[in-house]
Amino acid sequence: MGKVKKEFAAGAVIFRRENRQVRFLLIYSRRNKIWGFPKGHLDSGESEKQAGLREIEEETGIAKVRFVSGFREEDVYEAVSNRGASKGDIIEKHSVYFLAETKTKEVCVDKEEIGDYKWVSAAQAMKLIVFPGLKQILRKAQKSIKRENA
């Protein structure tokens, strides 16, 4: 057994306010066939936040977001790599999520990667998200939004 390879990604839980309701943006990954948050791999020399911003714009077309300060959650899990030299290997994935508010309602998804998108309530998001790690991040995001509103 060699050393476990690690892959790093960054993204964000994106939300907007609509008539005092908080709506979260979920995107449907064509590759993984699941609902989740925009995220992608860090490019060389990029910070987590830079990668998060780039991925948000690439996957959703949303260019203007405000990061909620102090929110940084990491989801660590094992997966089978589908990238490059490590394709087929078990890798340890580190996905960092920030919390970002936008006023943009129109989403323009990258059709190659993203099959669909939805603005949903937290309760709807919980039903659509399958991974416990992502559900936990959504719960923490809700708490941060409530704290900010207090």
Keywords:
150 residues; alpha+beta; Nucleoside Triphosphate Pyrophosphohydrolase; 39% strand
How much beta, percentage-wise? Answer: 35-45%
Helix content: 25-40%
Question: Main β-sheet, in a few words?
Answer: 8 strands, mixed
Uncertain stretches of 5 or more adjacent residues: none
Fill in the CATH topology: Nucleoside Triphosphate Pyrophosphohydrolase
**Multimerization status:** single chain
Overall 3D form: globular
The Rg value, from CA coordinates, equals 15 Å
Q: What's the N-to-C terminus distance?
A: 50 Å
Integer count of domains: 1
The mean pLDDT is: 92
Report on the structure:
By secondary structure, the chain is α+β, with helices and mostly antiparallel strands. Helix content is 25%, strand content 39%. The protein has a single domain, classed as Alpha-Beta Complex (Nucleoside Triphosphate Pyrophosphohydrolase). The chain contains 3 helices and 8 strands. Strands 1, 2, 3, 4, 5, 6, 7 and 8 form an 8-stranded mixed sheet that branches. The mean pLDDT is 92.
